[in-house]
Amino acid sequence: MRVILKTRPRKKPHVPIEAEGIIPQNFLRKNDLSVYEGNRERHLEDLFFVTVEGPAVSPDQVEVILTGDTGRIKRVGEYMNAGRIIIEGDIGMHCGNFMSAGEIIVRGNADAWLGREMRGGRILCEGNAGDYCGAGYRGEKRGMRGGTVEVMGNAGDFVAEYLSGGEVIVHGDCGDLPGVEMRGGTLVIGGNCSRPCGNMTGGTCMVLGDPGELLPSFRRNGSTEAEFGGKKFRMAVFRGDVANRGKGTLLVREDLKSSRP
Amino acid sequence: MRIEDVVCPFCGCLCDDLVVSVEGTKVLSVENGCTLATEKFTGDHRLAHPIRRTGGSWEKTTYDVAIRETAEILLDAERPLLYGWSGTFVEAQTIGVHLAELLGAVIDNTSTVCHGPSIMAIQEVGHPGCTLGQVKNRADVIVYWGANPIEAHPRHMSRYTTFADGFFVKSAFRDRKVIVVDIRETDSSEIADEFVKVTPGGDYAVLSALRMIVRGKGELVPEKVSGVTREQLFRVANICLSARFGAIFFGLGLTMSRGKYKNIRNAIELTEELNRHTKFTISPMRGHWNVYGSNEVFTWITGYPYAVDFSRGIAFYNPGETTSVDILRRKECDACLVVASDPGAHFPRACAGHLASIPTVQIDPHVNATTHLSRIQIPVAVTGIDAEGTAYRMDGVPIRTRQLFSTDYPDDVAVLGRIYSLVKEAKG
Amino acid sequence: MTQGILIKNAYVIDPLSGIRGEVMDIAIRDGRIVEEAPPGSQVIDAGGCLTLPGGIDSHSHVCGTKVNFGRYMSPEDMRAGRTSRKGVMHVTSGYSVPTTFGNSYRYSTMGYTTVLEGAMAPLEARHTHEEFTATPHQDMLANTLFDGNWSVMEAVRDKDVKRAAAIVAWTLAAVRGFAIKLTNPGGTEAWGWGKDVANIHDPVPHFEVTPAEIISTMIQANEILRLPHSVHLHCNNLGVPGNFRTTLETMDLAPPAQGNRQTLYLTHVQFHSYGGTTWRDISSKSEDIARSLNSKPQVVIDMGQIMFGRTTTMTADGPMEFKLYMLHHNKWSNHDVELETGSGIIPVYYSRKSLVNCVMWAIGLELALLAKNPWQCLLSTDNPNGAPFVKYPEIIALLMSRRMRENERKEIDPRTEHYVPLFALERELDWYDIAVMTRAGQAKALGITRIGKGFLSPGAQADVAIYPLKPDQLDPSVDYQQVMAGFSRTLYTIKRGRVVARDGDVVVEGANSTIWTRSRVPPGYDMGSDPEFTKKFDQYYTVRLRNYPVQDVYLPRGVCIETEAAL
Known about the structure:
The complex is a heterotrimer. Chain A is an all-beta fold. Helix content of chain A is about 0%, strand content about 35%. Chain A has a 13-stranded mixed β-sheet with strand order 5-1-6-8-9-10-11-12-13-14-17-16-15. In chain A, strands 4-3-2-7 form a 4-stranded mixed β-sheet. In chain A, strand 15 and strand 16 (about 230-240) form a beta hairpin. Chain A is elongated, with a radius of gyration of 19 Å. Chain B is of the alpha/beta class. Chain B is about 35% helix and about 20% strand. In chain B, the strands form 5 sheets. Chain B has a 9-stranded mixed β-sheet. Chain B has a 5-stranded parallel β-sheet with strand order 11-10-9-14-15. Chain B is globular, with a radius of gyration of 23 Å. The N and C termini of chain B lie far apart (about 50 Å). The mean pLDDT of chain B is about 95. The interface between B and C is large, with 62 and 60 residues. Strand 8 (about 130) of chain B pairs parallel with strand 16 (about 335) of chain C.
C-alpha cells in the first residue's frame, strides 16, 4: 500500500503541526487520524490531500509519502515499528521519536531531534539535520539506544547526546559537542566538529575531519587504522572523558589533530 | 512615613532590609538599598491608563475594553505565547499558568534568556546548593564564575559573601578567599584573591581540567587550558580543596557562552567532585527579583520550570523547541501576552520583529521597548510598591513583598484574573 | 445553606468508634457526621461496600522546597504521568513527584482527605503553604524541622528545656507548623561541614550536643507545650547497614506515655532496621525492632515500605542523600537551610534483581506483620522515598495476602529468604487492621481526633471513603487483585461533607484547610521579644525577623489547634 499525503495550503503556515499519528501501521485500518495544528485538533484530511494506492495486510507493506510544505510537521514516525516513510522535502522536529523498526527517508533537511530516543530501524536524511540528531530527552540518562541514523549533509550541535546504543553517522560537519555524555553505541563524523565527546563514559566516536580543539580530559592511548567511505585512515586513539571517569573511545586523524591543546 | 524591612523588587538578592520613606503615593528616600533599588523605588515612568494602537497611533482606552480585547486575541490564536512573569508576584504567575492551560498556550518566563541553561544542567545532574545564609555563616572560599556581582547584584557581596561576617566567619574580608573567573577584568575581579582569565568560550575545558585535578588525574592537564596556566589551575583546585566550606556563584558569563548548559553541568559536576573531599555548593546568580518564583510556580503546577507548551492539553517541555526565543524566531506564535518583562529590549531583533507583526499585548506598569511592539498595553500596580505578593529569592527562600501605599492601579492578579474569567467563560 | 448526604447500606469500619464491620447508614450535614440527615439530602447507596473514614497520611512529602525541586530537576519523571485538563481537573504531570494537583487528585481518588507533609524548613515555610493551597483536596499539616536549629541546640547545650520549648512554640506559630520534626538530629548541622554524626552519642561539631540530647530535650519540650502530636523523628543513620542498633537505642529514649498518645513517633522505620555491616551482608532486623515496639506502647512507627520500580528520594537528611548518590551516581541535589536544617534529593530505582532492595522490601512488610498492635505501625512509603503513594493499595494487598507474598517471592532475588524472616510469617492483616493503619491510627497518633479527624460517629468531620469492595463477599487472602483495585479508586470520596471524587475522577474544585498549632506561653517565654534570640536572628539569618513569619493570607482556611503550655 502506498499512502500519499500532500500538504494543503494553510493560512498560518508557521504554526507547527504535530502528527505522531503518521506511521505506517495507522493506515492499515481506515480510521480517522487526528493531527494538531497549534492548539487545534484537525482531521488528517483538513491538512493533507490523502491518496491511498493498493492494499496491505501488515504494516511492513505500507509506505507513506509526505510531500509539500512538510518542514513544520513534528513527530512523524513516532513509535513507528514497521514499514517505510518517505519525506520528499524537509521535515520538522522529532521525526522518528522512539522508532523501533522500519525506515524513514528524508530527502530534504530534518529539523532538531531527528531519531530522538530511537530503539531500532533506520533513518536516512539526505540533507542536513538540526541539533540533537540521535539524542535523548531532557533529564533522561539514555538517548538513542539502537538503530541507525545516517545524515548525508551536516548536523547541528549536541549530535548523539547521551547516545547509548546504535549508530549515528554524519557524513558532513557537526557543530559543537557531538557525542556529549555519550555512553554507548557509535558516532561517526565524516567532516569537522568542535569539542567532541565531552563527558563521555562509553561508546566510540570517530572524527574524520578536523575535530577542532580536543578537550584536555582525554588520554592518548595509541593508534589504530580505520576505514570510512572506502578510504583508510591512521587514527589517534583517546580514552575518556577522564574528568568523568569515562571509558569511551575517541578516534581522531593523526594528521588533523593539530589543535590539541 | 518611614517603612522598615522593605523588600526590594529589583534583583534576585531580594534584600529585605530597606527603609523607605513615603509621602502619599510618592517615595521620598530609600536607605540601605543599592543604586538600582533606589532607582526602582523612585523611578516614575508609569503609564497612566491602558492604551491601544489604532492605525499608526496610540489611543487611550479603558481597562474593560483592553481586557476584553486581550481575551479575544488570545482565544483566536492557534499558538498563543504567554511570556515574561519574572517581574510579578507568585499569585499572578499562578493565574498565568492556569490561563495558559485553559488556552492551550505556551507559557515561558525570562529564564529563557538567562538561567534556562542552568535549569537544563540541573535536570541532568542535580544541584548541590544552599540558602545564602549558609554561605554567609560558613564559607571561607567564594568563587564567582562568569558573574560580576558588583554591577548586577550590588549587595550580594556585602550581604552574603565577601564582606558579610557570619557565625563561623567572624571577619569575612580577612577570613574569606575570593576567586573570580571571567573572560575579562571587572570591578569584581579587582577585589579577588585569585583572578582566572579564561579565553572566551573556554570555560568548559577549564572546568574539565579542574575536575581532573580534584580527582587526582592532574598529570594529564596540559600546560595551558583555554588561556589558563596549569600552575594556576592547580592553585585554584588546591584553594577549593582546602576550603572548609566553598561556594560557587555563576552568572550569564557561564550560562550564555559557548556550550551553555554543558558549562553549568560541568561546574555542577566539579562541585559534586569537591564534595567528596570537603563541603561545596553552587548557585546561579538569578537576575529578576522573582524569576525564581516563576520557576517554582510553573513547576508545582505543570512539572516544568519554564517553556511549557499546553497546545496538546498536557504539559510538554523542551527547551530549544518550546522556549520563547525559538518560537518567535520560527515565527510560530500568532499572538503574545507579555507580562512583567521587556522582551523588546532583551530578545534578538528577529524575535522582536515577529512580536510586532502579531497581536502582542503587554501588561506592565511602564512604557518600555516592548510597548513599541504591542497593540495594547495595560498598566498595573508595581509589586513591592503599590502591590504585594510572594517572591522567591535566588536561593529559593520565599519572602512576601510589601505594599508601601495604594494607588488606583489594579495589580496583576486583578487584570489577569479578569482575562482568565473571560477566557473560561468562552471555553465553557 | 444546609447540605446533607445520607449514605445508606455502608459496610462501616470505624476503629475509633469501635465499629468493626457493620452495615449501617451515615448521615452528613454541614460538613459533619450527624445523627440524622436533613430533609432533601443527597442519598448515596453504598450497597454494602467498605466505608471508612477519609484516609490520612501521617508522613508524605508532597509540598515545599525540596519536593518542588524534585519536580524541577526531573522532566523525565514528569512525562511518566501526564493528564490533560478534564472537567474541574487541572493538567497533571509526574509519577514519583507529581505536580500538586496530580498529588491531590490521586490521593483523593484513593480516598485520602488529610495529608501531613513530612518536612518543612521554617525559613521556607511560605513555599510549603503556597503548595498546600494548590493541593486542594486534602487538609494539610506540616511537620516543622528542628533537627539543626541553632537556638534549639544552644538551649539543649544549656540544659534549658523550657527555652527549647519556647523556641518551638514561637517557631511553630510563626511558620504555621503542626509538629516537631527531627531529621537526623545533629546530622544536618554536621552536614553544613560535609560531615555526619555516627550515632546518637556522637557530638555535633561546634555545638557539642548529641543527637540523644536533642531528641530527649525535644520530647520534653513537646510535652511541656502539650502539642497534639509527639516528636516526629527520622532517626540518625538512615539507610546504613547495622543501623538497627541506633534505632533501638533511640526507641529507648521515649518516656512512658502520660495520656493516650505516644511520646515518640518514628517514621519510615524500614530504612532504620538493617543488620549487617556493609551492603553485602545487609539483613533484616525487623524482629528486634518489632520486639522493642511491642514492649513500648509509648512508641508509634510508620513502615516506610519500599516497592519495586523507579522513584525519587527526598529528605532533609542531606548527608544520607549524598551517600546514596555515591551508590547510584545518577543525579544529586542538596539544599542546606541556614541555622535550621538541610535536604537532599536523588532519583532511585528499586530493583527485584538487587538483593539489598529485596531485603528492604521485606523489612517494611515484616514490621507491619510483626507489630502486634496495628495502632503502633502505620502504613506509609515515606512517599515518594520508598515508593509513590499510589502503591499503597498494593502494600495493603501484600499485608492481607500471604499468597500474594509467596507469588512475589518467586519474582525477587532468590537469596532474599536467607536474609529476612518475611516468608515464615503467616499473619494476614484484616480489614480492621488496614482501617487502623491508614486512617484511625494516624488520627490518634497525630492527635487530630480532637478536630474530628479519623472517625465517623456524630460530631466527626464528614471525610468518608467508600471503596468498591464488599468485605463479606471477598477473601483478601485469595482475591488480592480485587483488594488492590478496590483501594486504588473509591466509588465516592467525601470531604467535609461534599462528594469530591467519584469513580476515579475529581468532581469539584477543592477547598482544603491547613491545620497548625499554637502553644500559648507566658510573656517571659515569648521569643519574639527575647533579646538574645532576636539579636542572633538579626546577625545570622539573611531574612529579617519581621519578614520571617508566614502571614495569615497564606492559610485561607487555617485551622489552629491551640494549647496551653505548661511553662
